[in-house]
Design a protein that fits this description.
The protein is mainly α and 106 residues long. Helix content is 70%, strand content 0%. The longest helix has 32 residues.
């Protein structure tokens, strides 16, 4: 999968209009969806590689992923608790997706 060229947007600190803000947010949202597609590609790979369905859910790994996201958020001055909650949802959604892909293996 080739990466699309980055879209020219105004840096948030340089925005002077709501049109610039909205264009920037829209560009970031598109980039996030592209990254999520890549993340879910790894869930496809995990479902293909794991030897048994019981290996799909790994609570220790889930906790580590959420802790890493929260720590990165805190380091960047973002709301740590909100990011942890968002990542919990992301990981749970990823697990459900992986279960579906595993079950499709037959």
């Amino acid at each position: 999968m080739s990466k699309p060229a980055p879209e020219p947007t105004t840096d948030p600190t340089d925005c002077t209009t709501m049109a610039e803000v909205r264009a920037g947010v829209d560009a970031v949202d598109r980039a996030l969806i592209d990254l999520l597609a890549r993340r879910f590609g790894y869930m496809d790979a995990a479902a293909r590689i794991k030897p048994e369905r019981g290996a799909v859910r790994d609570e220790a790994r889930k906790a580590a992923v959420i802790a890493a996201a929260a720590a990165r958020a805190a380091a960047l001055g973002l709301p740590e608790g909100a990011i942890a909650a968002l990542w919990d949802r992301l990981v749970e959604t990823s697990i459900a997706y992986e279960f579906d892909r595993f079950d499709e293996r037959g």
